[in-house]
Task: structure prediction
Amino acid sequence: MKYAVSVFIAFFIGLGTLAAQGLSLDSPIDFSIDLHRLYQAARNNNEKDIPQNRLLLIEGTIGSRDTIIDEEDDFLAELELVGGHWESEEEIVLYRAIVIFDGPEYHPLFNPRGQDRLRNGDKIIVVAEFLGLDDDDFGEGRVPLLLCLAWRKVF
Result:
């Protein structure tokens, strides 16, 4: 299952890179989209609610990390960015997005012995491009896919 998702992500990133070569860190950022809005778009299976021509600034907590390709000149990894809120005294609503890190410059973030590595539970902010919605591995509908262009830890 993980292999199929990895192949899909590698393919999707290739398409996303071709389709969105105009987005860079100089591109405009849509500050109105957050992890909750991404969750709503995924829950409603409606990509049209998320702008394709703007970067997003998304904050969340790392839920999991996975390295997909780990070669000297080729690196691809993903992490699950999670957030949530209390719906009532007994119900918590969790939202999540998958953030793709594509390029050898991201290798130190996923190196288990790296000084700058990202860990589960770290809170981060990513500047990302919205790639679309993918099937959720947990069978809970759809999940947003984002391509990271920049990131920072939040302390």
Observations:
- Helices lie at 2-19, 35-43, 107-110.
- DSSP finds three helices and six strands in the chain.
- The domain at 2-153 is CATH 2.40.50.140 (OB fold (Dihydrolipoamide Acetyltransferase, E2P)).
- Confidence is low (pLDDT under 50) at residues 1-21.
